[in-house]
Amino acid sequence: MQINRLTLCTDEDFRQIETLIGVLSTSCKANREIIDEVIAKEDSHLFVARNEEGKIVGMTTVCCFTIPTGRHATIEDVVVLPECQGTGLGRRLVEEALDYLRSTGKAYKVGLTSKPARVAANALYRKMGFKQKETNVYTLDV
Ligand SMILES: CC(C)(COP(=O)(O)OP(=O)(O)OC[C@H]1O[C@@H](n2cnc3c(N)ncnc32)[C@H](O)[C@@H]1OP(=O)(O)O)[C@@H](O)C(=O)NCCC(=O)NCCS
Questions:
Q1: Which of 19, 31, 94, 137 is most enclosed, with most CB atoms within 10 A?
Q2: Is residue 136 part of a domain?
Q3: How many domains are contained in the chain?
Q4: Domain harbouring 55, CATH code
Q5: Does 71 contact ligand 1 (Cβ within 6 A)?
Q6: Beta partners for 60?
Q7: pTM of the shown model
Q8: How remote is the CA of residue 90 from the centroid of ligand 1, in Å?
């Protein structure tokens, strides 16, 4: 299994990303324009795990942003195909994202969120050393 930053999305890659987004959420639909934008932007980095046949079986995105309090990043949309889960791939994807941040110095602090119902994800993040922060998360459609 190889993990790399996606810099060009083929139609086949997009179909596999579409499947992964379906695993992540029943309400979100994959959008080609958005994936191309994620790849093109300097502050977002999409990492994909490919199997021996070159098929994308897992992914995560790192988003970097600079605010007056410093350089920060978030790790978003960590997902692995159900048939590949439990083999250490989720951990490897998050490690790759952390290595990238450490090696580039793009952020000194990284955050992420996960619903309590996502048992596997919460266990993974805690095991990797992420500490739960007491805060309220708000969203608003704009
Ligand atoms: C969360 C997810 C990415 C984890 O990927 P994975 O490849 O299955 O996880 P790994 O095999 O790397 O497991 C790493 C650790 O996660 C935890 N974990 C994984 N699956 C678990 C499960 N079903 N129950 C409890 N803990 C689990 C364990 O602590 C495990 O460490 P261990 O193997 O030493 O016990 C994957 O389950 C997934 O895609 N889930 C659906 C989408 C999702 O919820 N994404 C998170 C969005 S915030």
A1: 94
A2: no
A3: 1
A4: 3.40.630.30
A5: no
A6: 47
A7: 0.95
A8: 6
